[in-house]
Amino acid sequence: MSTPTKEAAEPASKIDMKESGGGGEIPSFDVTLQVRRYDPEFSDDARWDEWTITMYGTDRVLDALHKVKWEIDGSLTFRRSCAHGVCGSDAMRINGRNRLACKVLLKDLDTSKPIMVEPIKGLPVEKDLIVDMEPFFQSYREIMPFMVNNSPAPTGERIQSPEERERFDDTTKCILCAACTSSCPVFWTDGQYFGPAAIVNAHRFIFDSRDDAGDMRLEVLNDKEGVWRCRTIFNCTDACPRGIEVTKAIQEVKRAVLTRSM
Amino acid sequence: MTQTKGTLYKGREGMWSWVGHRITGVGIFFFLLVHVLDTSLVRVSPEAYNAVIGAYKNPIMIVGEIGLVGAIVFHAFNGLRIILVDFWSQGTRYHRQMLWTVMGLWVITMIGFTVRHLMLFLDGWGGF
User: Fold this and answer.
1) Which residue in A41, A122, A142, A262 could disulfide with A188, CB within 3.0 to 4.6 Å?
2) Vertex A35 angle, CA A71 and A111, to 5°
């Protein structure tokens, strides 16, 4: 029961795609892909590799990466699983912004310039576009991302009104792709900061009427490295592929910490 | 392989206002440090104070003062914006509009200040 939020209108295509009569050929175009490569087995330095490939109007950045990996250079390394914006595996920096490669259509980018693909920032790069996600999940575990309810289990479900469910609806959408946390300048320089994703997932339980451990989570986040590190930079809100109002959620947790202590 | 370094993260209004807030904040801190030192010279001797304060009476400092006021005005208005983002429940949704308001107020304030400031200066240091 997600809220009917207004979807942003689809951006106008940057490529002139001829109207193809039913069943006609899909228009194709050339794109140049620049990928930041890193392989510690060969060099300690990262480098840029460039390929020019022919792609179609229906293709996404992930399809371009697939084409390179499957047809040109099998050593190109990246994560992807579902390839449909649900699993959150393929967050990467595309033209300087964190995006899911499976959700960015090539035709929506400026293909007159190379498309720059880099690993997400702030987490140690292991190879090419793969980063070590452990610090990210460490913060996630610390906010206790599970329901805690001390009252005896009822025979049926725990009843919740639509209004109570609505309170934390936005933050239930998180897919833990780390696009928000790795877009945060505070997180880049201070790896101890919990980061937006952990706070979003704490928000999901703090404002759940069925949960009893909100105070414990607020305690965890009322830390030098907790919610107060947020400088309201809004990169996280811009990066979230699920459209979660991340900064808004963090601000609500901040205010909950304040009102609780008063 | 045209570039060897990684690219700059393409943050939007929120990121650049934060960068501006940081830079102006650090700049104002250093000004205040110098300002406390030169003002406290009056305890050493009024002559030393006059000599040091006299050093401000030079065209480069006139331009510097415009920069200083510009930094303070931005830091002040943007600080109010951040307070609204923190405490107004709708603040996070209108942070962009609030930033444009901050920039508008900054331009108006700076036009007023710069005109008055330069008039005093061109008046042959009359007001200084």
Assistant:
1) A122
2) 85
- For residue B127, pLDDT over 80 is answered with no
Structural domain contains residue B54: yes
The whole-angstrom distance between A36's CA and the closest CA on chain B is 8
Under DSSP, the state recorded for B58 is S
Q: CA B60, B65, B66: angle at the middle one, nearest 5?
A: 100
Residues A73-84: what's their mean pLDDT?
A: 96
Band (pLDDT 50/70/90 cuts) for residue B103 is very high
CB A83: neighbour CB atoms within 10 A? 17
Using CB atoms, which residue from A114, A116, A233 is nearest to B14?
A: A233
The overall average pLDDT reported for chain A is 92
Which chain B residue is nearest to residue A98, measuring alpha carbons? B9
Two tokens, residue A85:
């914006």
Report the half-sphere exposure of B28 (CA within 13 A, side-chain side): 14
At the topology level, CATH places domain A133-150+163-259 in Fumarate Reductase Iron-sulfur Protein; Chain B, domain 2 (1.10.1060)
B21 is in which domain, residue-wise?
A: 14-124
pTM above 0.90, yes or no: no
CA pair distance A242, A170, nearest whole angstrom: 9
**Where do we find the tokens 């007001």?**
B127
Amino acid at B39: T
- A147 within 8 A of A210, measured Cβ to Cβ: yes
Candidates A46, A96, A248; nearest CB to B10: A96
Count other Cβ atoms within 10 Å, centred on residue A110. Answer: 10
DSSP state of A174: -
Number of structural domains in chain B: 1
